[in-house]
Design a protein that fits this description.
The complex is a heteropentamer of chains A (612), B (281), C (334), D (285) and E (339).
Chain C lengths: L2 H30 L4 H10 L6 H15 L5 H13 L14 H36 L4 H13 L4 H15 L19 H37 L3 H8 L4 H26 L6 H7 L4 H10 L3 H29 L7
Helix pairs in contact in C: 1-13, 2-3, 5-6, 5-8, 5-10, 5-13, 6-8, 7-8, 7-11, 8-10, 8-11, 9-10, 10-13, 11-12, 12-13
Chain D lengths: L1 H10 L1 H18 L35 H37 L1 H16 L2 H12 L5 H11 L2 H15 L2 H8 L4 H37 L10 H10 L2 H4 L3 H28 L1 H8 L2
Helix pairs in contact in D: 1-2, 2-3, 2-12, 3-4, 3-6, 3-7, 3-9, 3-10, 3-12, 4-7, 5-6, 7-9, 9-10, 9-12, 10-12
Chain E lengths: L1 H4 L2 H4 L4 E14 L2 E15 L4 E5 L6 H9 L6 E12 L2 E4 L5 H6 L4 E4 L13 H13 L3 H14 L16 H13 L5 E5 L7 H18 L2 E5 L3 H7 L2 E6 L2 E7 H6 L4 H8 L38 H5 L5 E2 L4 E2 L11
Parallel strand pairs in E: 3-8, 3-9, 6-7, 7-8
Antiparallel strand pairs in E: 1-2, 1-4, 4-5, 9-10, 10-12, 11-12
Classes of the chains: A alpha+beta (612), B alpha/beta (281), C mainly alpha (334), D mainly alpha (285), E alpha/beta (339).
The complex binds adenosine-5'-triphosphate (2 copies) and magnesium ion (MG) (2 copies).
């Protein structure tokens, strides 16, 4: 019997999907709907542009529905988009500029829809002078308006006007079955929410992705299946019932590598296996809670960390460390990490009694030495390769310097306990999310242990589902989470930096908009942000401003960047080959990224696959 | 003449039955009688099983409320004794004796616990004073505190236990003792010691006793007055000897005839009579 | 009014009171929960996007209005009861605007199917084993079975499930380890679908059975060892009645009566789902729905599921009280 | 008291075995006070070492000694479990006895509360309470909440025992002997209720431990305090079973099974000792 | 049918022979051991077609004695020595030498009415099932025949056959008692053992039940062993009575003789203490308390309460010796005066 009833196993790609609560719902534009991980946005939606988070330079940019890059007017109050021709919805209706206008206008008219808010804030009017052109008139100058339609993970997807125009309340419409604007279309789904199957459109050429292909994609069916808890996922992959895993613990990854090595592929060919996502797990401090407003305290806490233990404890060594406040992935390597090495090495920190150079460019080698006993030949000797695997360097643990910094901040040590200037013991509650992001919880426990051992009693506080809210409301002292996410494939840091402007900082207790959860406020930072707004997206000045920001962040240490978010996403090669990897990073690795579609159409059937 | 206890057309109805068949059962139908305060007596209730004897006893003790009619003890309506203080005052004057002496004492509690508890609650005495009160009460029943102290119910015979129960009931100095079949679970040789004890209580301590039994022989032996119950009705009442020597109702007569004489010849004859009567029906 | 009707009315009133108190309590706790459904949705929508702060605030306002979370606690409480009485729990907040009721109706058949079966099997096996072990005290096989059951009893269900998953999913991969039925098979009364339902239900059901059997076993065994000394059993033995008959008709039958109440309660609590087992095997039942609801701050959903569960258990208690006289001839109502 | 223990040990094999098992686990748990490492410290030892002469029960993927982790975990879990059990027994006994004995309005009110709690689904309520309490949710609060949810079935059982005692003659006799309600309940009825209490205590303990594990597995555990659930949680986070680190989970489970078997044997033999029926035959009924 | 199987020679032999029977309750709870000598060296025989009454005060061991005879022993009761032999025409049964054979004989030849037998019916099954379970397989009849046989039997005993469809709790105590008698006699056994079948019944019902037992016994020609402490009951139906005191048989003889001329002071006391309807003269109660069977008095066990006790009684146990009409165990046998 087939593993999937009626579908040959070797025509289907099986991807780890979520457990859908509401399986009948295919409206991407309802609240939360656009964040689906079940293939709906990944396989059927489309918009103007894509950025490959792993790409560098021009190769990272893809024009999808748009025929060209965005065209702004002089003062960034108008954006014009030219659309490609010959693109059709899966029900045969042609895609035109009217669909785009409809998308924007409908959402503005229906607050609560996914992109209603940003359209309302930005768009004064939108018009389609001809079926292939859309013109956006903006309320205020905005050089980054196009990013609303630029997919890193998701973006504003274009609505099928011919479907939605007959719908009374687009918020209450389940859009089932959805018409597709991309190469795959809904085949069937489980009402119980455990799987959704998409199949290749017969007219796959009439899509933005299909136009670029020379021959038909070999993957005929894409199955998003909820394969259960991490243990079950590992088992299912080893049983060849799950081709793509999104995320498992390092140990699960190692188990697969050990037991199914020949049948699997990873981002790195061997250890550390993981794909570094362009997000930056860090130790966040709440700058509105004393004593974390004090730069010296933050730096002292950073210098108390032995990053090797954190790397071993959280990722068992498979961590891609970051000393800069941007993830060491994609184009950031060439744009920031490599150029800034010298600056980092020379960076001097005043401890109050002396000046030190805290940067240690050899951490990658040290970690390599630590994992070599277990992984042996997997670990190369080439320092450049090691830097790609383990990061460029980090701060050397320096207890003496930390002591001096704390003393400079007015702290005193009684026995093995640091006292705050007001005479009370310095204790920290370090918040972690918990088992949703297990590696970070692990990092939290080990950092807590290091701080505790040096006299700052630290307890780990598992916030679970309330994590996001508590971060937003400033209901924490320190936390392990990320407030930096980047395009990965583009040096522009506005992705997160825009929201760091002091205009948006809220008093404690009120909800802080996403990103600047540490509530870091600095005039120099505001200046960088304001300049960046006036510079075009592709202007080389963007990278210069980025470097300015990164230097400021090192000096201020507003949060302690730890590493890229390393994701263990092993692929089973029994049926499919040609997955993206560090060596061939043509797409991101992981089923939830929308540019996964580029991986799916590129996969090749394994000729040695068992015939069903 | 003041009235000690007075029952006025007391009835008790139970609703019984299962899920589908439900009916009402009149356990007691309009019982009326009174006991005199000045002249202690042994007042006997006889009747077959299920005739309502126990129900009457329970209503007199206030454990059950009459469906209609009233029960007054020294002028007070027994069912109206709500507060704990009034209940205690009532219990000091009315005390029960139960059917099964082995059941009447918790097998896991020492017997003296009941005695001390009674002394403390009703007489308000502890320690030596309590010992004295207990000893006095136990002496009335031919026992002493030394014999009872620290012992468990299984260490004594049924007759002894029943006497201890009586002694305990005597501690508060009650006016009335309600004894529901006090001898039916006690074997023949002990039975007389209890029954004789009741006589002594009446004669020496002036306690009135409501004696419930289906044993006509002992009823005849000790009672002053008797009522005969049949299916909830009081069918005959009066001077004990008069009623039992010369029953008026057919049922009373049958009851009387059912008593087997302790003599083989007569007993066989009685049984033969019964057999022929049954087979004739 | 006749006694039974009076009893029925009083008992019904009590039933209403139980439901009212239980649901109110849950409502109170749920409302004290700090998880804000608006925030949950906002963070879902903004987590990976480059959304600017002004839009986020606008989005937050729009969602709060959409979800209808304005109004005082009392208003919400009253309107909640208004809806409950109409059998409507309002729209789910995490799957807005799908009605909670339709989410529940999606999950309920799975839960009922799996749990009813598992509960009944557990009950039968546990009681049978317990009764046998209590009656044939010296039988070696039964002692062995008893010891196994007892040793399994304290093992957390999660571990049992995980071990089963490893054994039958990996070491000897003969059973599906995840989901409710085979993929791409639409619900129907075909052999394939039913077979696949059974196969997928086997591991979760086995977990539930193994985890639950000990409780019944222990209580049944002790009930039986009390009953075997009852007069009617001793008498039947003296009367030469065969052992099997004594066991089934004299011992087990009497001992089972109190267990029936337990069964009813367990069946009632089926509506709450088996959180851990569903979680482990990805079973699309009420437990999973509930945990998702709690995580996403979906009050409407949590309240819906708990209310259903409370009502079901209360009904089970109510019904068992009413039908008890039918199964135990000794009991009278009133 | 001491004599009873001696008698039980000498004359009852079940008690002896139960005692040895329970005491063994107890001593083992007690040993955590003398542990060579703090119980929350991680990566002090090489991770993933299988059982060996050096690490008898192996080490975890977090570089902890399973032996000492277990020792603390059992201690903490037992503290939690016993707290739940004792609290809920107190509630069950009080409510069950008062309700069964007083009857009437009291009974109805108490049983309505009881039925309400029976109807509340445990796990969801605990999860909700967990959310509401958040950082204030430490183990005593959790124990209290669990105790509040865990007494109701047993209160009904106890109530039925007391109901049957209520109509026994010795109870009526006690009333007329002027005993107060507490006196009757404690002196007269409690000995009959105790076996039920002991028996249900076992199941309650298991339930409490199961609850702790369930919450931990769902990610609600105080990770600063080692418990059995916490060990499973961390093992799970490290995919220990899949990764073949079986000793991380197997040993704690074995310890729990041993502990439970020990407690079970103790409960049945102590029950036999205090059960009114066997006590009577001992005294000579 | 029954008579045909009894061949001539066995007709004269007694149906039951009990020899030197000792049955003790041996208990050991947590180091406290107790031995209750409830049956201590009892020898007796029971003939065909005879009603044998056993009398004695509470806990003197009456029930234990007949439990032992019926082979209904469960721990802690143990038969220490002695034998119990039945002779049912064709089949001989030695209860303790070959216990297996007992099972087949139960209800066929031998039935037993337990003490408190009002409560021996399964509370959750209809009465009908009790007959099916106990008797059906002995009768070799079709279900319908069996049913009509049972109904006929009940009718003959004055019971409405409709009671078969009732549950035990729906019937009164007297009714249930009669049903257990019906149950015990439906197979027409040669030997019936009854333990206090009339205690706790009211006098009218008690008389009915006695009449019933007598009827059945006469019709079937069975032997009945009958226990009660109520002497008037013995007076009414027993052919012979045995008096038990503290686990021992102290006197035995034809009922008339025992009542008219009790030989043992205990027997005499039992008879004289009975009140008679219409007699109000004061009756004496027996002084002292019943002996403790785990630590019985030395010598004659009755001596601490005996008005006639002499020193010899304290040390020497009187043997059960045959007299003209029966047997008695007393050093001063026959010296009592009946009040
Ligand atoms: N609580 C009750 N509920 C229903 N019926 C009851 C209740 N108590 C007694 N009865 C019924 O009332 C009737 C009278 O019972 P009662 O106990 O007063 O009789 P009795 O004369 O004491 O009988 P006995 O000689 O058997 O003790 C009986 O039919 C009995 O079944
Ligand atoms: N199961 C038992 N375990 C221990 N001792 C017992 C047991 N049954 C009876 N006894 C004891 O054996 C002795 C004789 O008891 P038995 O029941 O034979 O007396 P009885 O003459 O039938 O009394 P009654 O008239 O009360 O029925 C008593 O002392 C009793 O305590
Ligand atoms: Mg009565
Ligand atoms: Mg007896």
């Amino acid at each position: 019997q087939d593993f999937i009833a009626g579908i040959p196993r070797n025509e289907a790609l099986i991807i780890q999907g979520p457990a859908a609560q509401n399986a009948e719902w295919f409206n991407l534009w309802a609240p939360g709907g656009g964040a689906s991980n079940n293939g709906l946005q990944q396989l059927t939606a489309d918009t103007f542009w894509f950025i490959n988070p792993e790409g560098t330079g021009d190769s990272a940019w893809t024009n999808a529905l748009a025929a060209d890059r965005p065209q702004y007017n002089e003062d960034f109050t108008q954006m014009t988009v030219k659309l490609k021709e010959g693109i059709y919805w899966s029900d045969g209706v042609e895609f035109t500029a009217d669909d785009v206008v409809f998308t924007v206008e409908t959402q503005i008219a229906n607050p609560g829809m996914g992109w209603s808010a940003p359209f309302t804030v930005n768009v004064e009017s939108v018009e389609a002078p001809d079926p292939r052109t859309v013109v956006f008139n903006l309320n205020a100058p905005n050089s980054r308006f196009h990013t609303l339609f630029t997919v890193r993970w998701n973006a504003a997807w274009i609505m099928p006007k011919h479907v939605f125009e007959g719908v009374e309340d687009p918020l209450a419409f389940n859009n089932n079955p959805p018409v597709s604007l991309s190469a795959y279309v809904l085949h069937s789904y489980d009402t119980a929410g455990n799987w959704v199957i998409w199949k290749l459109r017969d007219d796959w050429e009439r899509t933005s992705i299909g136009q670029e292909l020379e021959e038909a994609p070999q993957v005929k069916y894409v199955v998003y299946r909820n394969a259960g808890n991490p243990d079950a996922r590992v088992i299912e992959q080893m049983n060849h019932n799950l081709d793509v895993i999104n995320d498992i613990a390092p140990e699960g990854m190692f188990t697969i590598a050990r037991q199914a090595g020949a049948n699997s592929a990873y981002w790195f060919d061997g250890f550390p296996f993981a794909h570094p996502d362009p997000t930056l797990p860090s130790v966040l401090f709440n700058h509105q809670v004393e004593p974390f407003e004090n730069r010296d305290v933050r730096w002292a806490l950073a210098l108390l960390i032995d990053i090797r233990a954190v790397a071993m404890g959280s990722y068992r060594g498979a961590a891609n460390l970051a000393a800069l406040s941007t993830p060491p992935t994609g184009t950031a390597i060439v744009d920031y990490y490599e150029p800034m090495q010298q600056w980092l090495t020379d960076f001097e920190l005043d401890t109050g009694s002396r000046s030190i150079r805290p940067y240690d460019p050899t951490t990658a080698d040290q970690i390599a030495a630590l994992v070599r006993p277990q992984w042996g030949d997997d670990i190369p000797d080439d320092p450049d390769l090691l830097k790609r695997m383990f990061g460029f360097g980090w701060w050397k643990q320096d207890i003496q310097a930390a002591t001096e910094l704390l003393q400079k901040a007015g702290f005193t040590k009684q026995g093995n306990q640091w006292m705050k200037p007001d005479g009370t013991p310095f204790t920290i509650r370090l918040m972690v999310e918990g088992d949703n992001i297990p590696t970070l919880a692990r990092a939290g426990t080990i950092i807590a242990q290091q701080w505790s051992m040096e006299g700052i009693q630290t307890t780990v506080d598992v916030a679970g589902p309330t994590n996001g809210q508590r971060l937003g409301a400033g209901d924490f002292e320190a936390a392990i989470y990320w407030t930096v996410e980047t395009w990965g494939g583009h040096p522009d840091l506005s992705f997160f930096l825009e929201s760091y402007h002091s205009d948006f900082i809220k008093p404690l207790g009120e909800v802080q908009p996403p990103r600047n959860l540490q509530r870091w406020q600095d005039e120099r930072l505001d200046a960088i942000i304001e300049t960046n707004r006036t510079v075009a997206f592709d202007d080389p000045k963007v990278a210069e401003l980025g470097i300015e920001y990164l230097q400021l962040a090192v000096e201020e240490m507003p949060f302690i960047p730890l590493m890229a978010y390393n994701k263990f996403a092993p692929f089973d090669t029994t049926y499919w080959t040609g997955y993206p990897s560090a060596a061939n990073p043509y797409a991101a690795s992981g089923p939830f990224w929308s540019n996964l579609r580029y991986m799916i159409v590129a996969l090749e059937a394994n000729p040695n696959a068992p015939q069903s | 003449m003041s009235v000690l206890l007075e029952l006025q057309s007391v009835t008790k109805t139970f609703s019984i039955g299962g899920f589908f068949d439900r009916s009402k059962l009149q356990a007691v139908k309009g019982a009326t009688f009174a006991l005199d305060d000045t002249r202690p007596e042994i007042f006997t209730i006889v009747g077959e099983s299920g005739s309502g004897k126990t129900t009457i006893a329970r209503m007199i003790l206030g454990n059950e409320t009459p469906t209609t009619g009233t029960i007054r003890f020294m002028g007070e309506d027994v069912s109206q004794l709500r507060s704990r203080r009034r209940r205690l005052a009532f219990m000091a004057r009315v005390q029960p004796i139960f059917q099964n002496p082995f059941e009447a004492f918790n097998p896991l509690t020492t017997l003296d616990y009941y005695l001390y508890s009674t002394a403390r609650r009703f007489l308000g005495v502890r320690g030596a004073a309590a010992d004295e009160a207990l000893d006095k009460a136990l002496n009335h029943v031919g026992l002493s505190l030394a014999e009872v102290k620290g012992r468990y119910s299984h260490e004594l015979s049924g007759g002894q236990l029943q006497r201890i129960a009586v002694a305990r009931a005597l501690i508060p100095g009650p006016k009335l003792i309600v004894a529901d079949e006090p001898v039916s679970m006690v074997d023949a040789s002990l039975r007389m010691s209890i029954v004789n004890l009741f006589r002594t209580l009446r004669d020496d301590l002036g306690v009135s006793i409501i004696y419930i039994t289906h044993d006509l022989a002992t009823a005849y032996y000790i009672s002053d007055r008797v009522i005969i119950m049949h299916k909830g009705d009081v069918i005959e009442a009066g001077e004990a000897r008069a009623v039992l020597d010369n029953p008026q109702q057919a049922y009373s007569l049958a009851l009387k005839n059912a008593v087997l004489p302790p003599d083989p010849t007569a007993a066989r004859l009685a049984l033969e009579r019964r057999r022929s009567a049954v087979s004739a029906v | 009014m006749d006694g039974f009707a009076k009893y029925l009315v009083r008992r019904f009133f009590q039933f209403i009171l139980v439901v009212f108190l239980g649901v109110s309590l849950t409502f109170l706790i749920t409302n004290l929960s700090p998880v804000d459904p608006v925030e949950q949705t906002v963070s879902l929508m903004t987590n990976f996007g480059a959304t600017d702060p002004r839009s986020v605030e606008l989005m937050r306002e729009a969602l709060a209005e959409l979800y209808g979370l304005q109004g005082s606690f009392l208003d919400q409480y009253l309107s909640f009861w208004g809806r409950v009485v109409r059998g409507d729990f309002g729209p789910s907040l995490s799957s807005f605007p799908t009605p909670v009721m339709s989410l529940i109706m999606g999950a309920l058949p799975w839960t009922i199917g799996l749990l009813t079966l598992a509960v009944v099997i557990t009950w039968i096996l546990g009681n049978l084993l317990g009764a046998l072990a209590g009656y044939f005290r010296s039988n070696l096989m039964l002692k062995l079975a008893g010891a196994t059951v007892m040793a399994l009893h304290p093992v957390p269900a999660y571990i049992l499930g995980l071990v089963l998953l490893l054994i039958f999913g990996y070491a000897w991969p003969v059973l599906p380890i995840s989901g409710g039925a085979q993929m791409n098979l639409q619900p129907s009364l075909t052999f394939d679908y039913i077979r696949s339902l059974i196969l997928h239900g086997t591991l979760p059901a086995m977990t539930l059975v193994l985890a639950g059997i000990g409780g019944w076993f222990i209580s049944m065994r002790s009930l039986v060892s009390n009953i075997v000394t009852d007069d009617h059993v001793v008498y039947a033995e003296l009367g030469g009645v065969s052992s099997s008959k004594i066991f089934s008709q004299y011992v087990a039958r009497n001992a089972l009566l109190p267990q029936v109440t337990g069964l009813a309660l367990s069946l009632g609590s089926v509506f709450g789902g088996a959180v851990i087992t569903e979680f482990l095997f990805n079973y699309p039942g009420m437990g999973r729905l509930l945990v998702q609801g709690i995580y996403r701050g979906d009050y409407s959903l949590v309240l819906g599921v708990t209310t259903m569960s409370i009502i079901a258990v209360a009904i089970a208690v109510f019904v068992i009280d009413l039908i008890y006289p039918l199964i135990d001839p000794r009991v009278r109502l009133g | 008291m001491f004599k009873i223990l001696r008698d039980l040990l000498r004359y009852n094999v079940e008690f002896l075995i139960g005692f040895v098992l329970t005491a063994g686990i107890f001593l083992f748990a007690l040993a955590h006070f003398f542990a060579p490492y703090p119980d929350t410290a991680i990566y002090l030892l090489p991770p993933d070492m299988p059982p060996s002469p050096e690490y008898w029960l192996g080490t975890t993927s977090r570089g902890q000694d399973v032996l000492w982790q277990m020792s603390s975990a059992i201690w903490n879990t037992m503290t939690f479990g016993l707290t739940v059990t004792v609290l809920s027994r107190l509630l069950a006994v009080t409510v069950g006895m008062v309700s069964g004995y007083l009857g009437g309005k009291w009974d109805e009110a108490l049983m309505t509360v009881n039925d309400t709690l029976i109807a509340l689904p445990n796990i969801p309520i605990l999860l909700l309470v967990y959310f509401v309490m958040r950082d204030q949710m430490n183990w005593p609060v959790l124990a209290l909440t669990a105790a509040l949810l865990g007494w109701n079935h047993d209160a009904r059982l106890i109530r039925s025992v007391v109901l049957s005692l209520r109509h026994r003659e010795f109870t009526r006799h006690a009333v007329f002997a002027g005993m107060s309600v507490p006196q009757i309940l404690i002196r007269q009825h409690l000995p009959y209720v105790m076996p039920v209490v002991f028996f249900t205590a076992m199941n309650n303990l298991i339930w409490a431990i199961g609850l702790e594990v369930t919450l931990s597995v769902l990610g609600f555990s105080d990770i600063n305090r080692p418990t059995i659930g916490g060990m499973i949680y961390w093992a799970n986070q490290h995919q220990a079973i899949i990764a073949g680190i079986w000793w991380w989970i197997a040993f704690p489970i074995i310890a729990i099974v041993i502990l439970f078997l020990g407690l079970f044997l103790l409960a049945i033999s102590v029950n036999e000792y205090i059960d009114p029926r066997s006590r009577l035959s001992r005294m000579g009924g | 049918m029954l008579a045909a199987t009894i061949d001539a020679p066995t007709r004269t032999r007694p149906v039951l022979e009990v020899e030197n029977l000792k049955a003790y309750y041996q208990m050991n709870y947590f180091g406290v051991s107790r031995e209750v000598r409830a049956v201590d060296d009892v020898t007796l025989t029971i003939n065909r077609n005879e009603i044998y009454g056993i009398a004695g005060e509470s806990s003197s061991g009456k029930s234990t004695l007949i439990k032992t005879i019926a082979g209904a022993i469960t721990p802690p009761l143990r038969v220490v020595s002695g034998s119990v032999k039945f002779d049912f025409g064709g089949s001989q049964l030695d209860v303790y030498a070959r216990p297996k054979a007992m099972k087949a004989a139960r209800w066929r030849h031998l039935s037993y009415i337990m003490q408190g037998s009002m409560n021996v019916l399964n509370p959750v099954r209809k009465v009908r099932h009790a007959f099916d379970d106990f008797a059906f397989r002995h009768m070799g009849l079709s279900p319908a025949q069996f049913r009509s046989r049972v109904e006929g039997h009940l009718k003959r005993l004055g019971l409405d056959p409709r009671v078969l469809e009732s549950y035990p709790h729906q019937l009164s105590g007297g009714m249930r008692q009669r049903l257990t008698i019906a149950l015990a006699t439906v197979c027409e056994p040669e030997f019936i053992i009854a333990d206090e079948p009339t205690t706790a019944l009211d006098v009218l019902v008690q008389q009915d039940v006695l009449a019933l037992i007598k009827d059945v016994q006469q019709r079937l020609g069975s032997s009945v062993v009958f226990v009660t402490h109520d002497m008037t009951v013995h007076a009414a139906i027993a052919d012979r009575i045995g008096i038990v005191y503290a686990g021992r048989l102290v006197e035995e003889g034809p009922t008339d003789d025992a009542f008219a001329r009790p030989q043992h002071p205990y027997t005499a006391h039992l008879i004289s203490s009975l009140p008679r309807l219409g007699d109000v003269s004061r009756r004496k109660a027996l002084p002292g308390k019943p002996p403790n069977l785990s630590d019985p008095p030395s010598g004659c066990r009755f001596h601490p309460r005996c008005p006639l006790a002499i020193d010899r009684c304290k040390v020497e146990n009187p043997p059960l010796v045959s007299r003209a009409t029966g047997r008695v165990a007393c050093w001063r046998a026959g010296e009592v005066e009946v009040a």
